[in-house]
Amino acid sequence: MINALFFVYSWFIFAPLMLAATVLFGLLCFLLVPFLGPRRAGRLTAVPWSRLGLMLSGVQVRLHGLEHLDPEQSYVIVANHLSQYDIWVLYGHLDKDFRWVMKHELRKVPVIGPCCALLGHIFIDRGDAQAAIASLETAKARLVGGTSILFFPEGTRSRDGALRPFKKGAFRMARDLGLPLLPVTLTGTREILPPDSLRMHPGGATLTVHAPVVVDGNDEAALEAALARCRSAIAGVAAEGCLEPT
User: Fold this and answer.
1) Where do the TM regions start and end (predicted)?
2) Going by fewer Cβ within 10 Å, which terminus of the chain is more open, N or C?
3) Structure pTM?
C-alpha cells in the first residue's frame, strides 16, 4: 500500500513540483551568472535545486570524510556512478565548487543543458576523441582557487551495482596539472532510482570522501598506481555499504 501511494505521489506531486522548480532555478541561473559568476550562481541555484529534489523524494543523505576536503585546494574528483540520483547527492552535499564532465547529449536537455553550459560544466563527445581532448584542455583553465573537476571514471552508470573498470582520463588530467585526486564513494542511490527505471523509492544515500591521492610520477606505472588506489578506496566502502566513516 505504501509503495503504491509513493508511486502516485512521485508522478502527480513530485514530478510537477520538480519540473516547476527546474524551470524556476534555471531562469534564476540565467539571471545570476552574468552578475555573480558561475561559482556563486551555482551555489544559489544548482545546490538548492538538488537538495529540494532529494527532500521531496524522501531521501536522507549521510556524509562521511568531509574533513578530507581543503576549501582552497582544487581536485580531480572521481566517484562511482549508480543512479541519476548521484548528481543530486554530489551537487547538493559535496561542499565543493566543481565542474562536471558529462556526455554531450545532455547539452540538449531543456533548461538543464543550457544551465550546465552557463555554469561551465564540460561536455564530452565520446565519439570524437579530438573534440573530447579539446574540451578537457579548455576545462583546465577553470581549475583554480579551489574549483575542481568531477569525473565518473567508469564512464557510465553501473547496471548491477558492481564497480566497473576505470578509464584513465581523470588520472591523466590530475598528473598533467599536478592536482590531487579525490576519491568519493556513493551508496544507496541505486536502490532509490535503479538504472533504466522511472520508479523511485525513498531511502538513504551515503557520500564518503576519502583521503586525496597524488599521482607520484610521470610514467604509466605511477598513473596505474594512483588509479588502483582510488578504485580500491571507492570499492572498499561500496562493498561495506558505506555506513561507517573512513
Assistant:
1) 6-33
2) N
3) 0.91
